[in-house]
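To: structure desk
From: M.T.
Subject: fold request, one chain
Message: Could you run this one when you get a chance? Sequence is below, nothing fancy, just the single chain.
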Amino acid sequence: MAKRSFQATEAGIKQAKSAFDRTGWTQESLAMEVNLKTRQPVWRFFTGRPVERHIFIELCSILGLDWQDIAEHSAPGGSEPKQAYGTLPEIDALVRQVRSQRQDKIQNQCVARCSY
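Reply: Done. Structure tokens follow.
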């Protein structure tokens, strides 16, 4: 059965923090990028605690990281195939699609607010 959550390894946390520092974002802004209501899952991600797998994968994607390099893997007997959750390019394409859909809405709202 598929795991419902992932957690980052120590090395993965270091990579993620480094990528996060390069963005100049806050944890709140990263949470907004993933469409989260709170920053708690972001905090859990950066402290190596379990995070829902779709959020974990999305955070890695937004930070430009391969989630499979960041995630702690199960013991050899319980490991799942690398492609169990889709390939990274598929996820990246989905992220780009969702962002482009949200970007239009945000731009329309900004134009509406700034035009008066």
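Reply (cont.): The chain has one domain: 5-114. Let me know if you need anything else for the meeting.
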